[in-house]
């Protein structure tokens, strides 16, 4: 009998082959799906229709499993979804652009079938890649600066909640004291002051 990790791989394989009979057969009669938007779909037909919607939107779409972790009746799968947007996607007309996003999928079995599925993906990245959303504003820091300079390259900025830092040196001192306090608290020592409150 197939274990939960095998079932997870079979679901991806059935989608890649557009084998809808096999895909439908892997879903429990009481199947439930929760996607990135938090909305729940109920029933195997709802799950099948969602799978077909993505297949129609990305006719050349493929899912590549990177890691599958299973224990008991639960499996977690990390996979990469790739495809070209050549069909309607939730009301968005085809753009002909390529998409590649990372997805994390969690399934639970009941009676040897996928009973519950929770899927996590970065929808914003997908919308940016198909060209219907502008990418988030880029960082004001120069890409040529090293990481620490990029982080501290402002004269005044808020550091944490309610703390105002006037300079990079003061900020670095605060971090040093914070780390020291953290180590001290683990040993039961009283914390030292880490900065001044913002007024």
Q: How would you characterize this protein structure?
A:
This protein has 199 residues and is an alpha+beta fold. The protein has 2 domains: 4-129, Roll (Nuclear Transport Factor 2, Chain: A); 138-199, no CATH class. The protein is 33% helix and 29% strand. It is built from 6 helices and 8 strands. The protein has helices at residues 4-17, 20-25, 44-57, 123-129, 147-152, 168-186, and strands at residues 27-34, 40-42, 62-71, 74-84, 98-110, 113-121, 157-158, 164-165. The strands form 2 sheets. The chain has a 6-stranded mixed beta sheet. The chain has a two-stranded antiparallel sheet with strand order 7-8. A hairpin with a 2-residue loop joins strand 5 and strand 6 (113-121). Mean pLDDT is 79; it is low at 147-168, 182-187 and 190-199.
Tell me briefly what this model is.
By secondary structure, the chain is α+β, with helices and mostly antiparallel strands.
Strand order of the largest sheet: 2-1-6-5-4-3
How much of the residues is beta strand, in percent?
A: 25-35%
Rg over CA atoms, rounded to whole Å, is 24 Å
Count, helices: 6
Oligomer: single chain
Kindly report how far apart the N and C termini lie: 65 Å
**Share of helix among residues?**
25-40%
SSE string, helix = H, strand = E?
A: HHEEHEEEEHHEEH
The count of DSSP E runs of length 2 or more, i.e. the number of strands, is 8
Segments where pLDDT lies below 50 for 5+ residues?
A: 147-168, 182-187, 190-199
CATH 2nd-level architecture of the largest domain:
Roll
Query: Which CATH first-tier class of the largest domain would you pick?
Result: Alpha Beta
**Strand count, sense and closure of the main sheet?**
6 strands, mixed
Q: Number of folding domains?
A: 2
In CATH, the topology of the largest domain is named Nuclear Transport Factor 2, Chain: A
Structural class: alpha+beta
């Amino acid at each position: 009998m197939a274990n939960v990790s095998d079932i997870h791989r079979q679901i991806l394989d059935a989608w890649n082959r557009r084998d809808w009979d096999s895909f439908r057969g892997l879903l429990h009669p009481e199947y439930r799906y929760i996607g990135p938007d938090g909305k729940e779909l109920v029933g195997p037909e709802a799950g099948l229709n969602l799978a077909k919607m993505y297949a129609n939107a990305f006719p050349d779409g493929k899912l590549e499993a990177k890691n599958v972790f299973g224990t008991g009746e639960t499996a977690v799968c990390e996979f990469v979804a790739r495809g070209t947007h050549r069909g309607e996607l939730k009301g968005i007309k085809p753009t002909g652009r390529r998409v590649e996003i990372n997805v994390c999928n969690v399934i639970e079995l009941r009676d040897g079938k996928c009973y519950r599925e929770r899927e996590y993906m970065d929808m914003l990245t997908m919308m940016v890649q198909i060209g219907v959303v502008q990418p988030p504003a880029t960082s004001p820091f120069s890409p040529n600066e090293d990481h620490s300079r990029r982080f501290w390259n402002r004269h005044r900025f808020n550091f944490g909640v309610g703390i105002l830092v006037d300079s990079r040196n003061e900020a670095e001192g605060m971090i040093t004291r914070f780390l020291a306090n953290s180590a001290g608290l683990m040993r039961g020592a009283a914390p030292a002051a880490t900065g001044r409150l913002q007024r």
